[in-house]
Amino acid sequence: QSLGAKRLILLTDVPGVMAGQELVSSLSRQDAQAGIEQGSITGGMIPKVRCGLEAVQAGVEKAHIIDGRVENSLLLELFTKAGIGTEITL
Q: Among 12, 17, 20, which Cα is nearest to 33's?
């Protein structure tokens, strides 16, 4: 936020936030917080989601959690309609 960034990109070694075997492509702030509280977001994904939440609450438009092992993952997330990871928005 202090840099005036519009996006925060978190590269990881998983596809993004998962609901069972399905990738969650988008999370609102409320959905992300509920997922952590209800236990559907667990383990190492919790700090990633919290980091994304802090960024959007501070004024960053979107935070993205994407799999950095996928070739061209950043381009696929930012420049395709569907994306390949999970975006967190207000």
A: 17
Judged against a pLDDT cut of 90, whether residue 3 lies above it is answered with: no
Q: How far apart are CA 56 and CA 17, in angstroms?
A: 17
- CA dihedral in degrees (44, 11, 80, 85; nearest 10)? -10
Give the whole-angstrom CA distance, residue 57 versus residue 73.
25
Per-residue pLDDT tens digits for 18-58: 999 999 999 999 999 999 999 999 999 999 999 999 999 99
In the block, residue with structure tokens 């994304």: 52
The strand order across the sheet containing 7-12 reads: 7-12, 62-67, 86-89, 26-28
d(CA 75, CA 79): 6
